[in-house]
Amino acid sequence: MKQQALNRSVNRPSADKKLLLIFFLALSALILYMFVNVRFDNPKLFRYSMKIRSPKLAAMVVTAVAMGAASIVFQSIINNRIVTPCLLGMNSLYTLIHTAVYFFFGAGNIIVSNSNLFFAVDLVVMGITATFIYGYLFKKTKYNVLYVILVGTVLTSFFSSIQNTLVRVMDPNSYDSLLNSLIASFSNINTEIIIFSVMVLTALAFILRKELALLDVIGLGKEQAINLGIDYDRCIKRLLIGVTVCIAVATAMVGPISFIGLIIANLTRQLLKTYRHRQLILGSAMFGIIVLVGGQLIVEQVFTYSVPIGVIISTAGGVYFLYLLLANRRV
């Protein structure tokens, strides 16, 4: 029996080899997106295609990294693989912020016309709200993450109710403009926004580097982590705020995409079958690139922009979520 188990372990590809396979798939998706249907025989058209596609590609990579890392860390904190960071209510808050700006200031105000300013408003409001609410909750609930999920669900309903009320009495022209901003899209990405997002994520990774290195131990459970000398409550609080900032960056840049985190995090865990979070976070980010870039390629080349990528991801994510519920009834 031991020899058979040893043979199976030898024949089974290691997580590093699988990670290398994901890397080549992600690289293939990036190359295909950049060069499919590009006029190589015409230098002007080639340069124009590169100018249009490069910012979109950069936006998708940044979004994939933010959502992939946030989803893996959040699932490890909650110790459940069928949850997503969307349970924190950030998508609903993003929708409410945009609705409020269009409702109170109109579609022609400077915040709407300046994408950099709107991005900064989204990031600041979502970051401050999440830090205040969840920081307060952690103190009041003695760092119980289950209360955080419950309050996140309540906040989602609360933000959605206010947003629906504003939409009902909104000017029709402003409502049409609002709908365009609430649908996930990689069109008209501003390069300054991408640079800003990269700076935020880089600073976040540097600030949380010690907590991220402890994720393998935190995944063992609260009691085990405390017995091994980890300041569990402080570490979880900082990681959860980091997850919120990542979701704020991704959502503020491309709009709400509810199921992307669930899809890429679970596909990574199913394929790699490892507890090492360095590999899981890296694999989830690359799976995110495959899903987002591959999906956008289908949207542009097959559906000719008639179907937004958010619709495709939400449909596929809903089906995948039902599969996870049926396949993991004990989770």
Automatic annotation (TrEMBL):
GO terms for molecular function: transmembrane transporter activity. Belongs to the binding-protein-dependent transport system permease family. FecCD subfamily. GO terms for cellular component: plasma membrane. Coiled coil: none annotated. PANTHER family: FERRIC ENTEROBACTIN TRANSPORT SYSTEM PERMEASE PROTEIN (PTHR30472), PETROBACTIN IMPORT SYSTEM PERMEASE PROTEIN YCLO (PTHR30472:SF19). InterPro entries: ABC_BtuC-like, ABC_transptr_permease_BtuC. The keyword Transmembrane helix applies. It is a multi-pass membrane protein. It is found in: Cell membrane. Its main location: membrane. This is ABC transporter permease protein.
